[in-house]
Amino acid sequence: MLMKFLPFLTVIVIWTPCRAQNGITSADLYKLRSVGEVQFSPDGSRIAYAVTNNDQPGRPYTQTWIMTLATHQSIRLGRASMPRWSPDGKWIAYIAGAGLTIAKPDGTGTVALAKIENTNNPLPSSGDRLAWSPDSKFIAFISSTPGPEADTNGDPMVITRYLYKPTASEGMTRLNDNRRLHTFIADLATKAVRQLTTGNYYEHSIDWSPDGRKILFVSNHESDPDRFFNYDIFTANTSTGAVRRITDTKSAGIARPGRPTGK
After folding, report:
1. Domains along the chain?
2. Which residues of the chain have pLDDT under 50?
3. What are the strands of the beta sheet with 180-187, ordered from one edge?
């Protein structure tokens, strides 16, 4: 029963030198690893988890592993992150490189389903970027598409948005690529991928409704989302793509004409 309440678990694993009296040195930083994205399989017999390594030049990289609890033996799926089990336990989805990939619990039968495009937008986002349908036949995922503005990093650089800087991971040396994050659906049977939502918004934190007819997501649909960080919950019909607003809240004490001042 405990597994039911611990879908995620993060553990920091620190390598300790044999000569403990010397403490940790700068060279030991390359031996540190962090474990996260821990997910139990639906039957509780396996655990999928991601290990972030920093043992080589450049940025840290993440590998996904699957452990069989009965034997404590683990198999490596490769450089991948965000493992998610299908509800029927027959597949595990994850992001490998820049693509959505699935594999069987023993690591075989790997299939690349879709390419995932990212963005360097500075707007905050969190929550799941992958979500299985209740019947295990589809996977919803977040990917980016070009926005109405041109990529600001062209020549000349034309800044038209209030938030023109990218995320800090890029060193703040480039400008916003102006791509938008939307929801896509991949069909496991046909390998077909279709874009479900559109617009000049950023979506994140997706999940399916229990009946599989809608996908829940979080987005900021203010008239000037660059200046007003006001996120609400929406649903998109998986057949028609029709979007419905579920919540209407205000954030950071921002009062807007014609809108309630509190909920």
Report:
1. 1-115 (no CATH), 117-263 (2.40.128)
2. 1-19, 252-263
3. 130-132, 138-145, 180-187, 193-195
